[in-house]
Amino acid sequence: MNKIDSIASYDAPHSCSREWLKKAIEIIEAEINRSADTHLIRYDLPASCGITLYLKDESCHPTGSLKHRLARSLFLYSLCNGKIGPKTTIVEASSGSTAVSEAYFAKLIGVPFVTVIPRTTSPQKVAAIEAYGGRVHFIDDPKSVYVTAQNLADELGGYYIDQFTFAERATDWRGNNNIADSIFCQMAKEPHPVPEWIIASAGTGGTSATLGRYIRYRKFSTRLCVADPEASVFHLHYADRSIKEIDCCRSVIEGIGRARVEPSFMPDVIDRMISVPDQASLAAMRVISRLIGRSCGGSTGTNVYAAAELISDMIKNHQHGSLVTLICDSGERYRSTYLDDQWLGKRGFDISGDMKRLERLFLEAKPF
Ligand SMILES: *Cc1c(COP(=O)(O)O)cnc(C)c1O
Predict the structure, then answer these.
(1) How far away, in angstroms, is 318 Cα from ligand 1 center?
(2) Ligand 1 proximity of 58 Cβ (cutoff 6 Å)
(3) What is the pLDDT of residues 209-229, one digit of tens each?
């Protein structure tokens, strides 16, 4: 080793040998090699309306949500940027799902993991993080999540992996079997292979950034709709770019809706945003779970409700075609919350009316 090399390795905070780096990347590549693609589930509305809704089931990743893709990309990105070494503690700010997936990848490559999460995060997610050996640091004020994560990383000499900043750039948006690439491949043999709409929701904004960029790059006519909880800032920012923050986001839908416009949120690749009341999301979550026979989480409900509004407009305009949305995670994670009628009652949610409207749309093609 010459002098320059030894100085470099002494000074770098996350220094690691190229040998260790190679091993870490190989471990993640092997994980990709063991994984199967997620299903694209088809739901046909009554034949009379000629509309089909497809749902990309991201709940079947090994760590149970679409955050599996993000965590994998963030680890590769950070490793290849020289930010992670064998002794680096990874720190993340999360509302839960990302932390579950990152704890899994941290364990795979053998580095410690700590996450800063709101105290209201579902107990099932906390259990999953801890099962992968991750440590949990609870906070009461969701707004302090970013600073707390950065401070914790500084104290521990660790690395704040920062999904909210890096989600949009850690993913290979041109292809490489990203979520958009996978959807269009799986649609290839369907009657309407190019969907009228793809509907996603935004937490980091990373998924919608990938979808929007890919649609444009591949020159598809598909439009991207982002469904956002009413209490979130993203749709306000979409309508008025000077709005960048609100006091707090009171939505109960975990994983999506923020009080701050996250750096990874890319409004210019979104064709439309639909704001969705939590009550409607919770109703749609139950209806779609029953219709397709798979348990879906709250943000899936938000997606499906927005899809229902688009379908409703298509029916009124006698338009045929397909729409694609995402099952972001499973309802099993919310057994003690969204799926508990007492929990809903205590919070004043009455979902029966919205459920009836949704059932009439999906089963009888009756528009809203
Ligand atoms: C993160 C998340 C989303 C949104 O995905 P982003 O790519 O972060 O915008 C939707 N649903 C759930 C359950 C999530 O955890």
Answers:
(1) 32
(2) no
(3) 999 999 999 999 999 999 999
The answer, yes or no, to whether any atom of ligand 1 lies below 6 A from the CB of 330, is no
User: How close is the Cα of 260 to the center of ligand 1, in Å?
Assistant: 15
Same fold, 35-61+174-361 and 67-167: yes
- Cα(5) to ligand 1 centroid in Å equals 41
Is 255's C-beta closer than 6 angstroms to any atom of ligand 1?
yes
67-167 is classed in which CATH architecture?
Answer: 3-Layer(aba) Sandwich (3.40)
Between the CA of 167 and the centroid of ligand 1 the distance, in Å, is 11
Phi, psi of 294 (to 5 degrees): -135, 140
Q: pLDDT (tens digit, 9 = 90+) per residue, 12-22?
A: 557 788 999 99
Q: Is 363 helix (H, G, I), strand (E, B) or coil?
A: helix
3-state helix, strand and coil shares in percent for the chain, rounded to the nearest 5: 50, 15, 35
Q: Give the residues across from 53 on adjacent strands.
A: 43, 323
**CATH number of the 35-61+174-361 domain:** 3.40.50.1100
**pLDDT per position as a tens digit, 43-94:** 999 999 999 999 999 999 999 999 999 999 999 999 999 999 999 999 999 9
In the chain, domain spans? 35-61+174-361, 67-167
CA torsion sign, 308 to 309 to 311 to 315? positive
Amino acid occupying residue 85:
G
Q: Is residue 206 within 6 Å of ligand 1 at its C-beta?
A: yes
The residue nearest atom 2 of ligand 1, judged by CA position, is 255
What CA–CA distance (Å, rounded) separates 93 from 142? 10
CA 183 to CA 181: how far, in whole Å? 6
Q: Under 8 Å CB-to-CB from 37, ≥6 apart: which residues? A: 177, 182, 186
